[in-house]
């Protein structure tokens, strides 16, 4: 087991290095990038060659690409003058990246976790109840809801939500992030409510369908019939055997979904002005703030890969066959 | 960076004459530069402003910072130098430098190579530097400009002009050959050649007083910003807590956070007796600029009275309110921005290497339509020449294409196109089968450019059916335009505003051959005055030769500009008027379409609104607000 | 708690019988079609999809015949002095006009072209690449499999939207585009991005199927007879996984429609001069314009949702018809 975990950790490190290389390639080797173009963006509107050169030196862009990549990776794993991991400095803000990343990751975490709680509480009960009453009116409506839920993009739902709940009726206060520590529970909650809902609808719909399908399949299995024939009440049959069996695959999917959400809530953060890492990603890509882009990409990739790792370890724990592959 | 001779008359006197001429002829299109609810301005209160981001180019470090909004803050509120502006509208002399720490105009030698200033006493730095500003502090600023690692983005106004300044020193060195500080209240500049607008350059923020004991700790570009020490009426809130005993003990001043905002409070050491209320009324107790990433929310809060000032284009719904609802009639101030929006054409990119095509574009272009898509009449006057009238008053009379009354005149354009060699069958449409196909029109992809670009394309679609639109983000647009080899034929991406308001200052970078710095860096996108050597080394030698073969010499204003700058003061502007006429009629690198206004939306809590023509923002220093808030108490 | 019904065992009433009641054989495809025909909802979705495809194809013709205004034909007389649309749904413009007087109906129809084109071709490319690599990995095994599988893992670890934005900005920034001018910004770039990030999903499924199929008897027989790798892959293995591939395609197409819309919404997808639903929604929400011009949001958003919904319904129906055991 330990060997399996170590193997996966090594793979994690390898993936991060590869992703760094890919990101470097995109921003330096593709025609739109290149060190000259990037440096010139920061040299004012009269970019004389001396100024551009100075910017390159200060941003560390004057060395060959492979050396920049090497020193960035080294700093990342071993730390730099701002701490560990070495995330470098943002050139547009002139501030170390690490505190910024930490703060923003926490904000995105609040967004993702809140949405996750919401979609689990909405999606799974709907799915389970539908499975217990297949082809009933409830089932049909639930599946329509699920289908619509996976067909509406976040930016449409968000726009409608803002118009209906904020602009027209003033039921909700508006967009933005209000920290619970600075402003208290009510502003924090009321500003997160709509983003949580908008973000969770897609996943709630998906989980409703998934849990319904899983539970239906499990309920038809042989061991369920065995349990029933043993004389257990239906309720016990369902709760003890059915739910557990059908929810296990959901756990792994949930881990991956949550990770993916952390890395990808970009549009939601933009619509609702939530200063998370998705928002930082858009800003830094737009301003070609090199270290910010690299750092955000790595944080997001790390979250995804780490979640994969955890999920796989849980699986290996449950199913010993996997470890020996 | 070569500069040119200017004759006789004392610099300041000529500047004053320019001012009178400007004031007489300069106009602002819509609301006046200042408005007041009557009576003396209210004292006290805090102006609350919100913005999406500061967007500094250089971390708010005055040595390098190139953003106009930063210049407003420095010049009005935080820093004093030898010269300044009166922080009022252009019609009240807002674009004319006046003495600040200097007791009066300098003594200029007969050969115009030596400027001697006497400094006032009693001008104090704010906390925690409790001492008087001396000539050494001005010298220190120049030493910083001279240092390569501090990236003085407009350092070339000084390097190559002041003797001994080369902008490439590897450390801060106050030994500059051309600047003498015989004692604490005297400073003398020695120039390499006569420089008529030198006083304008001494009003720029990079030259203002900086205390060495604090700034010596910050030798990289942008680092000094969070530690900025005041020498003027206001300072960062919390400046007194800065521990300057050593470089390691210094923490960024609490009143400034690049991600959260800035609060300015009164500098307790400021002595109004060393200043003038003409220049700085200092009515407010404080200014707070808070970062709010939610643009719609900014204007909602303005409407609700939670903030007092918001700059920029209001969201459409709010704009509609301002335009139609009488309750909000005077909230939006549109003041001359000393800026021109234009379409740039590349002299060496076919088919724009034929002057008839460029003239035809000027005739066909629907300036009114583009302006409407941009936001309507309040955006500014339709431009007929390159410089805004606030910089060159004669511009209103320069209109070489009167057939285009604003909405574009296709008939006239087609007549012009018929004279071009790209119109083979003389039907008024570009159709030579090669250069007329797939002409790249580079636009911006951020609102409202996509709509403006569509209007532009529609108006040019008759004479140039081969135009193909590509839209990119703003910075990409600029960097693409600057790459000579790309030869972008025509683009709506750029705008140009003054650094300081002399016609020379406006035209120099964008039309002089010096404005083409390298193969990938330029402000002269049209490549007016490009030389053969540079063209060859950058890979467009063939296009250069083709141009010369078809049209003769490459149009250039280098010689004319030299001539204009050498003229006596009262002949300078008319000379530049001729230069601009040449540009519009003969060289035709641009289609200027609007002389842009600056939009500032203001809640009536701002009881007196004054516009700062230099920084092109609201004049915090001369406006007044009636909210009675103390800056410490603003949320 | 009362008795809860477990799902009763399905009697396949589709088992065909001939005139005297003997069971007739039917090929899997005939069975599929008979099951699909009975699913009215899926049929309805199929009809909607068909209508949308039709409109997408004939949009330019419709415009020339009936509306007489192209997608970029503007009329600034229909906007206020400050560039705000004042004409909503009316006789002149069925869906209203936008900020420079362009017809929203026409642009919505053209947007259908963009969305369908991009998602079909993008998904198609994902399928081609994914199938090829999945087959190769599953059949060949060994180092080839390891390399391809690891690549799949890495691509799936990339933060999708982030990399898409970055790639789009990098390639879109140069007017020449990437890959020597082949991938310019706009439709080609979005198709490229969809294909680039979509193939691992396909490859993974195909690989799994290949692994299980290659041990089957008919493959061994083919191998024994001496047929080569590619022949076996294409003739024996691939047809047997067609059902799974169709299922994957039905999942990917609506996802990609939404993906393209998201990219266009963020201004890194289809450039503004080509009508796209995501871009139109962006225009509407920019500066909250839709608060005063609701039609600019409702129509493109409505069409986007209806299109995605129809494809999802159709996909559900196809999946159910292909394998009735899986869930209904």
**What's the gyration radius of chain C in Å?**
24 Å
Number of domains as seen in the coordinates of chain A: 2
Helix share of residues of chain A? over 70%
Unreliable stretches of chain A (pLDDT < 50, length at least 5) are none
Query: Which homologous superfamily in CATH is the superfamily of the largest domain in chain A?
Result: MetI-like
SSE order of chain C in H/E notation?
A: HHHHHHHHHHH
Q: List the strand order in the largest sheet of chain A.
A: 1-2
Distance between the termini of chain A: 12 Å
Radius of gyration of CA atoms of chain A, rounded to a whole number: 24 Å
Oligomer: heterotrimer
Proportion of residues in extended strands of chain A = under 5%
Written account of the structure:
By secondary structure, chain A is mostly helical. Chain A is 76% helix and 1% strand. Chain A has two domains: 2-97, no CATH class; 98-318, Orthogonal Bundle (MetI-like fold). Chain A has helices spanning 2-29, 35-41, 49-59, 65-78, 97-132, 137-149, 154-168, 180-183, 185-219, 222-229, 234-264, 266-271, 277-287, 290-318, and strands at 89-90, 95-96. The N and C termini of chain A lie close together (12 Å). In chain B, strands 13, 14, 15, 16, 17, 18, 19 and 20 form an eight-stranded mixed beta sheet that branches. In chain B, strands 2, 9, 10, 11 and 12 form a five-stranded mixed beta sheet that branches. In chain B, helix 9 (367-374) packs antiparallel against helix 11. By secondary structure, chain B is α+β, with helices and mostly antiparallel strands. Chain C contains eleven helices and no strands. Chains A and C meet through helix 1, helix 7, helix 9, helix 11 and helix 12 of A and helix 4, helix 5, helix 9, helix 10 and helix 11 of C.
């Amino acid at each position: 087991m330990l060997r399996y975990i170590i193997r996966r950790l090594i793979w994690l490190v390898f993936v991060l290095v590869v992703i760094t290389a890919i990101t470097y390639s995109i921003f330096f080797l593709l025609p739109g990038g290149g060190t000259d173009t990037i440096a010139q963006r920061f040299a004012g509107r009269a970019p004389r060659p001396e100024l551009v050169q100075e910017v390159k030196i200060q941003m560390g862009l004057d060395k060959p690409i492979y050396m920049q990549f090497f020193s960035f990776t080294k700093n990342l794993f071993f730390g730099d003058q701002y701490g560990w991991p070495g995330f470098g400095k943002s050139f547009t803000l002139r501030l170390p990246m690490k505190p910024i990343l930490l703060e923003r990751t926490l904000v995105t975490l609040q967004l993702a976790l809140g949405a996750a709680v919401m979609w689990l509480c909405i999606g799974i009960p709907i799915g389970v109840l539908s499975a217990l009453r297949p082809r009933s009116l409830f089932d049909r409506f639930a599946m329509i809801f699920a289908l619509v839920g996976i067909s509406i993009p976040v930016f449409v739902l968000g726009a409608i939500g803002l118009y209906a709940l904020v602009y027209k009726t003033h039921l909700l206060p508006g967009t933005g992030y209000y920290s619970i520590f600075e402003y208290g529970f009510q502003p924090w909650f009321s500003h997160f409510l709509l983003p949580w809902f908008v973000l969770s609808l897609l996943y709630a719909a998906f989980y409703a369908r998934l849990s319904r399908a899983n539970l239906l399949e499990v309920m038809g299995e042989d061991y369920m019939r065995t349990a029933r024939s043993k004389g257990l009440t239906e309720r016990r049959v369902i709760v003890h055997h059915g739910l557990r069996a059908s929810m296990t695959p959901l756990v792994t999917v949930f881990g991956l979904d949550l990770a993916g959400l952390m890395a990808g809530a970009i549009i939601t953060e933009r619509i609702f002005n939530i200063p998370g890492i998705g928002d930082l990603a858009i800003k830094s890509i737009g301003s070609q703030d090199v270290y910010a882009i690299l750092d955000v990409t790595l944080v997001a990739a790390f979250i995804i890969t780490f979640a994969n790792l955890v999920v796989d370890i849980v699986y290996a724990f449950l199913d010993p066959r996997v470890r020996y592959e | 960076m070569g500069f040119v001779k200017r004759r006789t008359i004392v610099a300041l006197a000529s500047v004053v004459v320019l001012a009178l001429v400007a004031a007489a002829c300069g106009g602002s299109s819509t609301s006046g530069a200042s408005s007041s609810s009557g009576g003396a301005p209210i004292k006290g209160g805090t102006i609350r402003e919100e913005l999406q981001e500061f967007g500094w180019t250089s971390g708010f470090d005055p040595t390098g910072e190139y953003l106009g909004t930063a210049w407003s803050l420095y010049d009005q509120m935080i820093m004093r130098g030898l010269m300044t502006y009166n922080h009022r509208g252009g019609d009240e002399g807002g674009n004319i430098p006046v003495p600040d720490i200097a007791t009066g105009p300098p003594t200029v030698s007969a050969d115009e190579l030596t400027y001697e200033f006497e400094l006032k006493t009693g001008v104090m730095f704010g906390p925690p530097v409790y001492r008087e500003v001396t000539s050494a502090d001005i010298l220190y600023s120049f030493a910083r400009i001279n240092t390569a690692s501090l990236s003085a983005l407009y350092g070339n106004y000084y390097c190559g002009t002041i003797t001994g300044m080369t902008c490439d020193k590897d450390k801060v060195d106050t030994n500059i050959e051309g600047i003498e500080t015989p004692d604490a209240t005297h400073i003398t500049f020695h120039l390499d050649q006569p420089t008529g607008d030198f006083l304008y350059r001494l009003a720029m923020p990079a030259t203002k007083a900086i205390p060495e004991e604090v700034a010596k700790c910050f030798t990289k570009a942008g680092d000094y910003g969070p530690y900025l020490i005041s020498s003027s009426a206001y300072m960062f809130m919390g400046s007194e807590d800065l521990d300057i005993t050593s470089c390691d003990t210094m923490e960024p001043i609490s009143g400034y956070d690049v991600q959260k905002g800035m609060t300015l409070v009164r500098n307790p050491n400021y002595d109004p007796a060393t200043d003038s209320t003409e220049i700085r009324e200092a009515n407010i107790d404080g200014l707070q600029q808070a970062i709010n990433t939610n643009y719609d929310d900014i204007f909602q809060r303005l409407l609700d009275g939670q903030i007092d000032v918001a700059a920029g284009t209001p969201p459409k719904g709010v704009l509609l309110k301002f335009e139609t609802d009488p309750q909000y009639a005077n909230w939006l101030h549109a003041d001359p921005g000393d800026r021109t929006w234009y379409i740039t054409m590349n002299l060496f990119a076919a088919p724009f290497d034929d002057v008839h095509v460029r003239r035809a574009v000027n005739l066909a272009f629907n300036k009114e339509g583009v302006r409407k898509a941009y936001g309507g009449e309040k955006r500014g006057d339709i431009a007929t020449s390159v410089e805004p009238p606030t910089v060159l008053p004669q511009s209103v009379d320069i209109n070489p294409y009167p057939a285009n009354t604003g909405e574009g005149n296709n008939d006239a354009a087609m007549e012009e196109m018929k004279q071009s060699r790209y119109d083979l069958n003389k039907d008024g449409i570009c159709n030579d089968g090669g250069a007329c196909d797939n002409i790249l029109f580079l636009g911006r992809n951020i609102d409202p450019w996509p709509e403006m670009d569509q209007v532009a394309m529609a108006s040019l679609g008759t004479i140039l059916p081969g135009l193909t639109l590509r839209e990119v983000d703003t910075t990409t647009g600029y960097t693409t335009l600057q790459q000579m080899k790309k030869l972008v034929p025509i683009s709506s991406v750029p705008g140009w505003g003054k650094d300081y308001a002399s016609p020379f200052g406006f035209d120099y970078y964008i039309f002089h051959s010096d404005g083409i710095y390298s193969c990938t860096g330029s402000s002269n996108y049209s490549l007016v005055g490009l030389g053969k050597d540079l063209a060859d080394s950058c890979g467009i030698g063939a296009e250069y030769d083709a141009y010369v073969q078809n049209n003769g010499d490459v149009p250039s204003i280098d010689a004319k500009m030299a001539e204009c700058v050498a003229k006596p003061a009262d002949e300078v502007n008319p000379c530049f008027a001729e230069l601009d006429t040449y540009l519009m009629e003969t060289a035709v690198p641009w289609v200027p379409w609007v002389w842009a206004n600056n939009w500032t939306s203001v809640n009536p809590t701002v009881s007196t609104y004054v516009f700062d023509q230099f920084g092109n923002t609201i004049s915090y220093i001369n406006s007044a607000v009636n909210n009675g808030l103390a800056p410490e108490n603003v949320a | 708690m009362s008795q809860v019904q477990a799902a009763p065992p399905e009697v396949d009433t589709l088992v065909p019988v001939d005139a005297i009641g003997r069971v007739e054989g039917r090929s899997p495809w005939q069975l599929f079609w008979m099951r699909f025909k009975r699913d009215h909802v899926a049929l309805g979705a199929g009809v909607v999809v068909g209508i949308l495809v039709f409109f997408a194809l004939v949009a330019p013709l419709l415009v020339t015949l009936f509306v007489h205004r192209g997608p970029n034909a503007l009329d600034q007389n229909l906007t206020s002095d400050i560039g705000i649309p004042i004409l909503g749904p009316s006789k002149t413009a069925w869906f209203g006009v936008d900020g420079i007087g362009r017809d929203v109906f026409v642009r919505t129809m053209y947007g259908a072209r963009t969305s369908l084109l991009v998602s079909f071709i993008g998904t198609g490319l994902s399928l081609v690449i994914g199938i090829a690599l999945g087959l190769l990995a599953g059949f060949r095994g060994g180092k080839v499999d390891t390399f391809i599988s690891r690549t799949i893992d890495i691509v799936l670890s990339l933060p999708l939207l982030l990399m898409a934005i970055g790639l789009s900005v990098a390639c879109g920034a140069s007017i020449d585009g990437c890959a020597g001018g082949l991938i310019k910004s706009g439709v080609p770039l979005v198709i490229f991005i969809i294909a680039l990030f979509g193939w691992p999903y396909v490859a993974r499924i195909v690989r799994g199927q290949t692994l299980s199929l290659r041990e089957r008897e008919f493959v061994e027989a083919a191998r024994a007879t001496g047929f080569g790798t590619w022949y076996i892959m294409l003739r024996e293995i691939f047809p047997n996984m067609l059902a799974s591939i169709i299922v994957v395609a039905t999942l990917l197409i609506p996802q990609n429609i939404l993906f393209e819309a998201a990219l266009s919404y963020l201004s890194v997808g289809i450039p503004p001069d080509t009508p796209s639903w995501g871009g139109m929604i962006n225009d509407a929400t920019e500066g909250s314009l839709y608060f005063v011009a609701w039609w600019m949001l409702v129509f493109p958003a409505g069409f986007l949702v209806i299109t995605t919904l129809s494809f999802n319904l159709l996909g559900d129906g196809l999946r159910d018809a292909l394998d009735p055991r899986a869930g209904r």
